[in-house]
Amino acid sequence: MNEPNLIFLLVLLPLAGSVVAATLPAGARTGTAWLSGLVLGAGLLILAGLHGPVAEGGVLRTTLPWVPSLGLNLDFRLDGFSWLFVTLVLGIGVLVVLYARYYLAPSDPAPRFHAGILAFTGAMIGMLTSGNVIMLVVFWELTSLISFLLIGYWHRNPAARDGARMALVVTAAGGLCLLGAMLLLGRMVGGYDLDRILASGDTIRAHPLYGTTLALFLIGAFTKSAQVPFHFWLPNAMAAPTPVSAFLHSATMVKAGVFLLVRFSPALGGTEVWFFAVTGTGMATLLIGAVIALFRHDLKGLLAYSTISHLGLITALAGLGSNGAIVAAIFHIANHAVFKASLFMAAGIIDHESGTRDMRRLSGLMRLMPATGSLAIVAAAAMAGVPLLNGFLSKEMFFAEAVEWHNGTWLDNSLPYLATLASVFSVAYSLRFIATVFFGAPPTDLPKTPHEPVRWLRRPVELLVLICLVVGIIPGLTLGPTLNMAARSVLGADMPTYSVAVWHGFNTPLLMSLAALVLGAALYFTFSTRIAQGPEGPPVIHKLQAQRLYERFMLAATWTGPRRLLRLVGPDRLQPQLRLLVLLAIAGATYMLWRSVQIEPWLGPTPLNAGFLLMWVVGATCAVAAAWQAKYHRFAALVLLGGAGLVTCLTFAWFSAPDLAVTQLLVEVVTTVLILLGLRWLPKRLQEIPGDRLRSARVRRSLDLVIAVVFGATVSIIAFVVMTRPQLSTVGDWFLRNAYSEGGGTNVVNVILVDFRAFDTFGEITVLVIVALTVFALLRRFRPATEIAGQPEQQATPTARALRDYMLVPSVIMQWMFPVLIVLAAYLFLRGHDLPGGGFSGGVTLAIAFLLQYLATHVRWVEARLTVLPTRWMGFGLLIAGGTGVGSWVFGYPFLTAHAQYVDLPLIGEVPAATAMLFDLGVFGAVVGATVLMLIAIAHQSLRSPRPRSQDEAARSEHEEAA
Amino acid sequence: MEFVLSAAIGILAASGAWLLMRPRTFQVIVGLCLLSYAVNLFIFSMGRLTVGAPAVMPRGGFVNPDAYADPIPQALVLTAIVISFATTALFLVVMIAARGFSGTDHVDGQERNR
């Protein structure tokens, strides 16, 4: 197998292993541990195989095209730096898997843990080796997501849930910023290839968007690496199981941010902004983290803040950007991973065996668990930077850079002092860890009696501490070459080789180290009792927590803010929403007018006809009066509405739209009857609604009036502007030319509906049928309000009874009109293809014929004599229309292709016989059925036995009790 | 003519919009009807105003499209008339049912309490 495929395997193997682990049974503790151990071990073997080519300074690449048009490929590349980092991830991963096997309780589901660890490893390796910056961000977010799952591993613990959510919100938000930065970078250099971006440092730094890009990039890196002020998620993430804390939150994931800083320093670094932002933040984090760590009583809390502080150190080094600083940063990434992972594991052992992590309760454990104690002391000494341990070396390099590197700014000048000060605190908290936990009086009052853990729980710690010692004593022989290889892949092949040695002579950095050790010890021993009695966190500062800000922000963003917004525009109040809708329409219309007015010259308006003007004086009066009366005089408003509708209908007739006029007239009749039928179910409105005369109501009405007038004016202006421009040729011309030759009909509107655009019409009659069925279904469950059930009081008065006699004449006429109307419907339907008419108008006419019978007599009389089956009509209509469409398939044409010809019938003459006519028959049936179903459903309401709602509810509760 | 028709559309639209923002369901239903007249006329007027030339073709022969009314807006409006009838019916039934359930004809299903 060749090398590119091996890189693929490196990423794919853990991800595939994760899927396998997830499917194993919950009890398979040893099995899953073996699985993940072997998978990670195989990864290490692959890395060993790839070491040769990488050590020669080569970059191994492999590409799998994914979305080439977007420049999105699965590019993977492995160079010295990522080789070192991947080795770190896999190596510590193996140890964590071993440790977790004995750390997790038998009741903890092991497969879920290992699936998470393996998936995280895969994502992390993907992030480290990605050669495409977009894929890098994808893997980056994947690590955030899996970190969320792993922190929340004990999901019954609320602290774990909160910590997991906080980590996800902070790091995923940072990831989004990072995505923004990567997209901008891609724009600047014209591609998302990592190598290309790294090689275009000068272009990027000179680009006007450099500042924005840098800010987004740094937010991404800082959130992940827990830099101030985004550091607060890391201590809360300590609710995770200790193996997770050791793996993700000290050794690997949190290093992703500094990895990115080091990786991108050739492209983005080297400017003064970079120095101040990165080194400044790093130094602040270094100092703040070290100070807070000293005051934490929780073991893992101390280690978490110490991790934050060390991440700050690496960030500060990345900000300096000199060759030595980059070497030191990489060196410290590795060293910190080793000693901090071992410390977390040791803290986990202490927690596991003694039942507490509170340093105020622990003491004198050296006597009870000497081996673990010795290991922890060596690791803590490495953390403090004691000579002959690995932490000392990289810290010395940091001091050396702080002293030697200069750019003349105040931050640069204060670097040595800040570094020493932070180091003093670092020594002090390491000392506190050692002194309180392992020395002093024997512990009393612990949940468990501590003893040495099982052998295998201690093995990973032993190995890590051994590495601390070996690297600390003979760095040049162990990590030195690899370090140079890694630094060379970041800085370029011409970087001089750094010799990493223990002894550099008696120089300033050594003095700083010694001073830090002495002062740190003095600091701790002076204040040890006061620290132990103090609050959880340094005096004064523990009250100013970034976490509070975060919590306040989250509360506002996810609770109070949305609620306020909901109260403002929420769905429980319709009027503000509709008002908003009208305002939006006005805004859209105004925008349109703003852009399009005065593009073309005016046409002279057509001459005014006095009759037309008069007609619309009546129509407009009707409309305004209907609006005015709709609240208290519903019947009057309905009649006025009908008046406006009639004028609309006449307008259609006036301007050459006979089809519209006919349909509008018929629909007008049906709508009016429908609303009339609905009127009696509304509450009586004999007196004024209380509050109508209030000032606020008046203000609201006046405001709405202004909005409505503006709305009407904009609509009016648009209509006028469009009508006075010459018309461009539209697709309508084609329809006019081809209606007869292609569609076999002379009425173009009808031909469009049943032939050219028949599919739309098919959809429309389907909607009509659905609405009718919905109406029917809604009314089946309808319970009228109790006070209006039964016979209306108007019908009980003597006048009403007299009126019923007067109605005899119209009702006889209506009954006699039934056959006439049926003929009219047939006529309208049949002529539709050639002359105004068609399925719609014919259908509505037939529906009116039925309706008149209901009006003329009453429901029971009609239904005793006439069986109308509206659902059959609808089904029949839809089937015919659909069947006509499907029929064209038989002849090899697409759905709804129509065929037209004229048939010579005896006596009648030439008759159009297009298949479109058959389709129109379907429209006819569906319209009849739907209209009649709706009207009958409402009309039937008066027949229902009125049942008070209270009775209804009583029945329902009885039913529920029975159930 | 254009001026009268556009003014008419504006008045219909304004009356409809005003009613749309009112608190009683019946006002809203009347408002929707008025608004649909306005919208139908608006769409119709996009085909410009033609008097005495309905889109009914001779049987065969040359057709000059400029001599006839534009059939597209008419076809669209024909569909719109039927659909707006259907939505009016649906809204009416919802209005009646909501009145039965909540005991009020306020659009929010409850009287504004203040």
From TrEMBL, chain A:
<dbReference type="InterPro" id="IPR050616">
    <property type="entry name" value="CPA3_Na-H_Antiporter_A"/>
</dbReference>
<dbReference type="InterPro" id="IPR007182">
    <property type="entry name" value="MnhB"/>
</dbReference>
<dbReference type="GO" id="GO:0015297">
    <property type="term" value="F:antiporter activity"/>
</dbReference>
<feature type="transmembrane region" description="Helical">
    <location>
        <begin position="326"/>
        <end position="350"/>
    </location>
</feature>
<feature type="transmembrane region" description="Helical">
    <location>
        <begin position="274"/>
        <end position="295"/>
    </location>
</feature>
<feature type="transmembrane region" description="Helical">
    <location>
        <begin position="500"/>
        <end position="525"/>
    </location>
</feature>
<feature type="transmembrane region" description="Helical">
    <location>
        <begin position="244"/>
        <end position="262"/>
    </location>
</feature>
<dbReference type="InterPro" id="IPR046806">
    <property type="entry name" value="MrpA_C/MbhE"/>
</dbReference>
<feature type="transmembrane region" description="Helical">
    <location>
        <begin position="661"/>
        <end position="682"/>
    </location>
</feature>
<feature type="transmembrane region" description="Helical">
    <location>
        <begin position="635"/>
        <end position="655"/>
    </location>
</feature>
<feature type="transmembrane region" description="Helical">
    <location>
        <begin position="414"/>
        <end position="440"/>
    </location>
</feature>
<dbReference type="Pfam" id="PF00361">
    <property type="entry name" value="Proton_antipo_M"/>
</dbReference>
<keyword id="KW-0812">Transmembrane</keyword>
<feature type="transmembrane region" description="Helical">
    <location>
        <begin position="806"/>
        <end position="829"/>
    </location>
</feature>
<feature type="transmembrane region" description="Helical">
    <location>
        <begin position="761"/>
        <end position="779"/>
    </location>
</feature>
<keyword id="KW-0050">Antiport</keyword>
<feature type="transmembrane region" description="Helical">
    <location>
        <begin position="134"/>
        <end position="154"/>
    </location>
</feature>
<feature type="transmembrane region" description="Helical">
    <location>
        <begin position="302"/>
        <end position="320"/>
    </location>
</feature>
<feature type="transmembrane region" description="Helical">
    <location>
        <begin position="703"/>
        <end position="723"/>
    </location>
</feature>
<feature type="transmembrane region" description="Helical">
    <location>
        <begin position="577"/>
        <end position="594"/>
    </location>
</feature>
<dbReference type="InterPro" id="IPR001516">
    <property type="entry name" value="Proton_antipo_N"/>
</dbReference>
<keyword id="KW-1133">Transmembrane helix</keyword>
TrEMBL record, chain B:
<keyword id="KW-0812">Transmembrane</keyword>
<feature type="transmembrane region" description="Helical">
    <location>
        <begin position="75"/>
        <end position="98"/>
    </location>
</feature>
<keyword id="KW-1003">Cell membrane</keyword>
<protein>
    <submittedName>
        <fullName>Na+/H+ antiporter subunit C</fullName>
    </submittedName>
</protein>
<dbReference type="InterPro" id="IPR050601">
    <property type="entry name" value="CPA3_antiporter_subunitC"/>
</dbReference>
<keyword id="KW-0472">Membrane</keyword>
<keyword id="KW-1133">Transmembrane helix</keyword>
<feature type="transmembrane region" description="Helical">
    <location>
        <begin position="26"/>
        <end position="44"/>
    </location>
</feature>
<dbReference type="Pfam" id="PF00420">
    <property type="entry name" value="Oxidored_q2"/>
</dbReference>
<dbReference type="InterPro" id="IPR039428">
    <property type="entry name" value="NUOK/Mnh_C1-like"/>
</dbReference>
<dbReference type="GO" id="GO:0005886">
    <property type="term" value="C:plasma membrane"/>
</dbReference>
<comment type="similarity">
    <text>Belongs to the CPA3 antiporters (TC 2.A.63) subunit C family.</text>
</comment>
